[in-house]
Every structure is written in C-alpha cells, then in structure tokens.
TrEMBL record:
Top-rank taxon: Bacteria
Sorted UniProt keywords: Membrane, Transmembrane, Transmembrane helix
NCBIfam families the UniProt entry points to: LPXTG_anchor (TIGR01167)
Source species of the chain: Paractinoplanes hotanensis
Name the record gives this protein: LPXTG cell wall anchor domain-containing protein
Bilayer-spanning residue ranges: 12-36
Amino acid sequence: MRFVRAGAVLTGANIAVVAGAGGLLLTGGLAAFVLARRRRTSFSA
C-alpha cells in the first residue's frame, strides 16, 4: 500500500508560512512606528 499524505500536513506548512509572514509584517510595522515617533519628537525638541 502506498502512503498518502494527509491534507493537514500541507495545511500546517501553509499556516507556518502565513504566520512567519505576519510576524515579519508586524515587526516591520513596529519598527516603522518607533522610527516615525523618534523623528517627530526630535523635530519638536
């Protein structure tokens, strides 16, 4: 008998990719927010 892959294995891989991309976007957004906040305060001082 042949071993047939379950659909959950492929779904789990896709979820990992989407979660990784979401984490990168979140990190990038947080970095942009912090940089924008620093620039604003440096000009007002």
